[in-house]
Amino acid sequence: MTDPVRLADMENGAKTMAASEAIGMRLGLGGNKTLTIGEKDLVLFDGKGKHTIPLYNVLWAELSGDSLVVDYAAPRKSSLKLQKWTFALPTPETETGGPTPQSFVLALIAAAYGGAKPRKRAYVLINPNSGPGGAVGKWKKHVKPIFEAARMELDVVNLSRGGEATELSEKADIEKYDTIMALSGDGTPYEIFNGLGRRPDAAKALAKIAVSHIPCGSGNAFSLNCNGTNDAGLSALAVVKGVVMPLDLVSITQGDRRILSFLSQSLGIIAESDLGTENLRWMGNTRFEVGLATRVFKKKSYPFDLSVKLEIEGKEMIKQHYKKYASDSTLLNVDVEAAANGEEGLPKLKYGTVQDELPGDWETAPYDNIGTFYVGNMAYMSPDANFFTAAVPTDGLMDLVMIPADISPVAVTKALLAVESGKFFDNPHVTYKKISAYRITPRNQESGYISIDGERIPFEPFQAEIHRGLGRVLSKRGVYEAEGPAGWEKA
Ligand SMILES: Nc1ncnc2c1ncn2[C@@H]1O[C@H](COP(=O)(O)OP(=O)(O)OP(=O)(O)O)[C@@H](O)[C@H]1O
């Protein structure tokens, strides 16, 4: 059993050492054996040959009795396997005059974590009902072992009902945790953001707690965008090594309610295909595709009035914006105070609510023949669906997509299939704009589906306004993991 005080010392030591200082450090292990911290790998020369572990996969290192132990997650074809390297420490007679084992361990942890915080303290919320099921099994088999090997501190709750994640996040002791983590689909992160958003200290809590996600649902957009994978084990490693990334959040007002959206808002074919197919949950992600195909062929349209605060129009301009900002770390460095707007609770709404008068500078138009109205804050909406190609985590802008219904089903299908091949954005039937606020009012329909982050809200007018960098998430590299199509390389 490792002494926790010593672990804490190591963590503090590791944090005070820059990863770059660790590179090149070599520990003699007696005989011809050496361990070297390379730029990307931990390298063992055992006298006969070289063995390497990617530093990204090193979870922890410590001195235990007379041994140095390195815990790591070995990459396997589709997942990870926990492994250990154990080395007998050199006796004083065989010491080679290099760094002490203690300082080598500190350096190794610093190099393995880079800008990420080691030993994150996590409040883990597991939704046993998410997606096709299996969140509890994934936790036990693929996630918890990695977190334990990385010496994370864990408080774990098995959720027993919808809404509980909101309540727990609302009441959570934010000083106690670095992250509130969802093992779920995208519904539980939505609940977590909204729980944090309901607190009297909402802005502070949203800036303090990074929300994280282990994919156990059918869409898992959060994880695809932030961890770069839909696999629970690989996501666990991405969270262990994750860095805090500011994220724009969207306030939605409907009636006298205000909620937060981190992912998307939709009305029309996409909303119906997602929410109208709950009876097909067992199908996992396929249920969405089945729902989509049946509606496209009916040429269903969803009339509405739309007012937008337009920020960037024209696909070439949007593409240039993406290339400039998608990986701009200065843009990502959002000031916490600014994000909080000096407010105690949620930031004030710049444009009021859906019940107020429309601002004069918004563009208003009636739409009678739209099949898909979809607004996104992240790029991937599901595996292989980088729908909002131009999404940037912290540009203070939402991406608005509309596809008409009065074109041939083949043309709509072609446009939607182009999502997978990276040609969706340029499809002539696809309208793509960057906006900072909008109001949508459905017309001539008794009922229908409106989806906010995959959760259904009443089929009534709502207004949306984005807050730049209001939230925090754990992300693999501080950017969205989505790669744009050819020609969209980030600057
Ligand atoms: N035991 C439970 N614990 C937590 N949430 C639950 C539970 N049972 C049902 N729910 C509902 O599940 C939703 C959250 O589920 P989850 O986080 O898995 O996202 P999802 O979007 O439904 O997943 P999927 O990607 O599979 O559609 C909430 O709407 C909540 O009301």
TrEMBL record:
Name recorded for this polypeptide: DAGKc domain-containing protein
Domain DAGKc: 117-256
Family matches, as SMART domains: DAGKc
Domain of life: Eukaryota
Any GO MF annotation of the entry: ATP binding
GO biological process, one term: sphingosine biosynthetic process
Entry GO CC: cytoplasm; membrane
PANTHER family associated with the record: ACYLGLYCEROL KINASE, MITOCHONDRIAL, SPHINGOSINE KINASE
SUPFAM superfamilies: NAD kinase/diacylglycerol kinase-like
Gene3D superfamilies: 2.60.200.40, Probable inorganic polyphosphate/atp-NAD kinase, domain 1
